[in-house]
């Protein structure tokens, strides 16, 4: 970037920067929490989660000492739950090593859940170190600025942009503002589909704008068709309590609670899948009752259709759950104490779900 372009961008940033809770007090801990939460998640979604999280766990010591169940509960609904587990592990490692976060991106990248972008963002925003933080917004701004038609999703393109910006940021008196100005420019002005070029402080330097077709840049590969998975779960009630299982740590959504169930096998109906999955997962034999609901939910790389059935125990007497995973029989009032995936919350909202607790 030319010196004049940097000056123009920083002047724009001073006047138009977003008001974000982690910017008002950019301690290393708060910057780390915000950057981990912002991975693959929009700012507007993150803000309330960040505020609740740092209120409950205001520093590394508090987070390190917290029970992982409490951490996951505060993360509930934010998605990508492995981030929460890694952030918790990161805090514990920081406390084991004296309680201070390093300002060196190489050292930071060795911590759980911190990649090159997050390490550079923490180093620059929390410590003022001159390292470029190259996220999707920055890649788009840079691709348009230079009319670079390379594939920005490739590691080579990201590395090329990083090296180019490294030389620039080392000559910039405020590395934090430099990085955050590019992030804000990409988020507020240099939008993916409808860029606000007339409001952009870089338009006189921008080759994509000069070409008259700014949205041609950056080039991305064609999207793949998102696969859909059909799953079925059993809502097993017994004397006003509902059976829930805890997912193992090494699974997707690890540490969260769910209902017994799983994917439909070839030629299997949803109700048949519930009966089989419940037997395999818990050792219980159930009779399939009413269909409580069919919900649709999208994850980052696939979608699910989930069928939820109320189930009756076929056995007589106190149920014995033969399950290697943690399990619990919970009353309706205690459900909010447990962290569930977002898809399960859609089941909670289904008409007829609460009736099971009355049986």
Percent helix: 40-55%
Give the topology string: H per helix, E per strand: HHHHHHHHHHHHHEEEEHEEEH
Instruction: Tell me which CATH architecture of the largest domain applies here.
Output: Orthogonal Bundle
Distance between the termini: 68 Å
On the 0 to 100 scale, the average pLDDT is 92
CATH topology of the largest domain: Endonuclease III, domain 1
Under CATH at level 1, the class of the largest domain stands as Mainly Alpha
Strand content: 5-15%
| Overall radius of gyration | 24 Å
Shape: elongated
Structurally, the number of domains stands at 2
- The structure class reads alpha+beta
Count up the helices: 15
Largest sheet: 7 strands, mixed
The number of strands is: 7
List low-confidence stretches.
Answer: none
CATH homologous superfamily placement of the largest domain: Hypothetical protein, domain 2
């Amino acid at each position: 970037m030319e010196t004049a372009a940097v000056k123009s961008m920083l002047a724009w940033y001073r006047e138009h920067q977003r008001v974000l809770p982690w910017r008002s007090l950019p301690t290393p801990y708060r910057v780390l929490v915000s950057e981990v939460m912002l991975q693959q998640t929009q700012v507007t979604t993150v803000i309330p989660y960040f505020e609740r999280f740092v209120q409950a766990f205001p520093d590394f010591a508090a987070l390190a000492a917290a029970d992982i169940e409490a951490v996951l509960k505060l993360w509930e609904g934010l998605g990508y739950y492995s981030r929460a587990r890694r952030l918790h592990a990161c805090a514990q490692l920081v406390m084991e090593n004296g309680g201070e976060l390093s300002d060196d991106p190489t050292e930071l990248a060795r911590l759980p859940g911190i990649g090159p972008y997050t390490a550079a963002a923490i180093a620059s925003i929390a410590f003022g170190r001159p390292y470029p933080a190259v996220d999707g917004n920055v890649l788009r701004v840079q691709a348009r600025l230079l009319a670079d038609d390379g594939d920005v999703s490739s590691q080579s393109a990201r590395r090329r942009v990083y090296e180019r910006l490294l030389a620039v940021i080392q000559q910039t008196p405020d590395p934090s503002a430099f990085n955050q100005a590019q992030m804000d420019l990409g988020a507020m002005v240099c939008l993916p589909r409808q860029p606000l070029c007339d409001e952009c402080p870089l338009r006189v330097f921008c080759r994509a704008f000069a070409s008259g077709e700014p949205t041609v840049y950056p080039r991305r590969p064609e999207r793949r068709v998102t696969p859909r998975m059909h799953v079925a779960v059993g809502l097993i009630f017994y004397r006003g309590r509902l059976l829930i299982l805890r997912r193992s740590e090494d699974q997707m959504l690890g540490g969260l609670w769910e209902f017994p169930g799983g994917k439909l096998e070839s030629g299997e109906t949803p109700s048949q899948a519930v009966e089989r999955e419940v037997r395999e997962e818990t050792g219980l034999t159930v009779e399939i009752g009413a269909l409580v609901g069919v919900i649709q939910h999208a994850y980052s790389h696939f979608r699910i259709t989930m069928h939820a059935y109320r189930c009756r125990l076929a056995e007589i007497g106190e149920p014995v759950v033969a399950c290697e995973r943690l399990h619990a029989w919970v009353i309706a009032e205690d459900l909010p104490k447990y962290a569930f995936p977002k898809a399960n919350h859609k089941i909670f909202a289904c008409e007829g779900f609460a009736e099971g607790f009355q049986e």
